[in-house]
Amino acid sequence: MAEKTIVIKNKDEEISKAVELVREYLRHENFSEDCGCSLAVAFDEMLSNVIHHGYDDLSEHSIKITLSAKGKDFIGIIEDDGVEFNPLLQPEANTSLPLSERKMGGLGIHLVRKMMDKVEYKRIKNKNVLTIFKADERK
Amino acid sequence: MQVTKKKTENATEVFVEGAIDTLSSPKLLAFVEEIIASGEYNITVDFKGVDYVSSAGLKTFLSLSRSLEGKGNLILRNMNAKVKQVFDITGFLPLFNIQ
Predict the structure, then answer these.
(1) Which residues of A touch B23 (CB under 8 A)?
(2) A15-68: per-residue pLDDT in tens?
(3) DSSP code of A97?
(4) Residue A91 DSSP symbol
(5) B26–chain A nearest CA distance, Å
(6) Distance CA B63, CA B86 (A)
(7) Which domain holds residue B62?
(8) What angle (nearest 5°) sits at the alpha carbon of residue B33, between those of residues B37 and B58?
(9) Is the CB of A97 less than 8 angstroms away from the CB of B91?
(10) Which of B66, B74, B90, B93 to probe by mutation at the A interface, max A CB count within 10 Å?
């Protein structure tokens, strides 16, 4: 199955561009629109996390996204050269607090974990490598 | 994302088209905060044209809800199932007036 690579810069405007290309790939590979929405949320969360918290300088950085599909599975890999950060080690968001006590920290990765089938993190050659898996009934 | 408003007898209705994500959420927040600043405290956000909502969008609604606390009502209506799922798995569903 065809693999697709997308490279974006560490700017908010690039997130929407990447999400659009991810959805284009998913449509081409016959994944459902529902699956496309879930992955749009997941990529928005993961890329904004890298862009907002991953760098301790003001330089331009590249973030590499690799998309592939095998059988019913979609696999997305995000590689960045930011500071070492494993989002899966962050404390679980408390989703039962009342409105007045709600904090936003951790909600993004909570959404990714709940909406994806599997999320893996590895530190490889000074890069953060986050991989997500999502199965879908492809037509 | 495109956002427009319509004044009705009891509320100001805000119609959103597209994604409420990292990039568009600040724009939506500023749009609705301007309505609140003009003295309109009953606001209905119509999600009919909303494709998906990420945590940046949830943060926007949390912020708007706090701005309107004790002053008026924030109603969120016409969410599709995927958008509702985002509110559900983050525990936001019971915190808002969703119609």
Answers:
(1) 12-13, 15-16
(2) 999 999 999 999 999 999 999 999 999 999 999 999 999 999 999 999 999 999
(3) S
(4) P
(5) 11
(6) 17
(7) 2-98
(8) 155
(9) yes
(10) B90
ipTM above 0.90, yes or no: yes
Q: How many residues does this entry show for chain B?
A: 99
Given strand A118-124, what is the order of strands in its sheet? A4-9, A62-70, A73-80, A127-135, A118-124
Question: Which domains are seen in chain A, by residue range?
Answer: 4-135 (3.30.565.10)
Question: Exposed e or buried b for every residue in A56-71, given b needs 16+ CB within 10 A?
Answer: eeeeebebebbbbbee
Contact B55 A108 (CB under 8 A): yes
Q: What is the DSSP letter of A10?
A: S
- CATH, residue B45: 3.30.750.24
Split into its structural domains, chain B has a count of 1
For B55, the closest of A19, A34, A107 (CB atoms) is A107
Amino acid at position A96, single letter: S
Q: Which residue of B has its CA nearest to A12?
A: B23
Tokens of B16: 């959103």
* Residue of chain B whose Cα is closest to the Cα of A17: B23
**How are beta strands A62-70 and A4-9 bridged, if at all?**
antiparallel
Q: What is the pLDDT of residues A107-118, one digit of tens each?
A: 999 999 999 999
